[in-house]
Design goal:
The protein is about 30% helix and about 35% strand. The chain has about 140 residues and is α+β, with helices and mostly antiparallel strands. It has a single domain, classed as Hypothetical protein apc22750. Chain B (Translation Initiation Factor IF3, 2-Layer Sandwich), CATH 3.30.110.70. It has a four-stranded mixed sheet with strand order 1-3-4-2. β3 (about 75-90) and β4 form a beta hairpin.
Length: about 140
């Protein structure tokens, strides 16, 4: 499953829009994390426990969004966005959403041109490199 935050995917054409798909999770803070975070606020620095909590929440929300897209028979989800909101004291929701689509791979002129372009020879190693020639004199 291809998941991107862009409206298109290079090398592919969207042939069918399946619809909006979404995934969310609501997480509560942990008392131990709150105590550690309070101490960290005194000295500064990253609150790694909260970073890990948000990373896990984002992963779970995306997995749920992908499951919904698969149920619709989609190949990809485009234009993916994330949002968060406070639900209650100490609890927050992470919401992921996008558009489920079906794709067909296309051969664009740029892709075909890049595939047929001659390979660039590797640079010699171990010796001095030569500078490019100076520009021609004018006048």
């Amino acid at each position: 499953m291809i998941v991107v935050n862009t409206e298109t995917i290079p090398g592919y054409e969207i042939v069918e829009v399946k619809g909006l798909v979404q995934g969310n999770t609501i997480r509560a803070k942990h008392l131990g994390r709150d105590i550690t975070a309070s101490l960290k606020n005194l000295v500064g620095g990253e609150l790694t426990q909260y970073t890990e909590l948000l990373t896990e929440s984002r992963r779970q929300a995306v997995e749920r969004m992908i499951q919904q897209a698969q149920q619709l028979g989609a190949d990809a989800v485009v234009n993916v966005r994330f949002t968060t909101s406070s639900i209650a004291a100490g609890a927050a929701e992470l919401y992921a959403y996008g558009t489920a689509v079906n794709l067909v791979q296309v051969s664009s002129p740029m892709v075909a041109q890049a595939a047929s372009a001659p390979a660039v020879p590797p640079r010699a190693t171990g010796g001095p490199t030569s500078a490019p020639p100076p520009p021609p004199a004018v006048g």
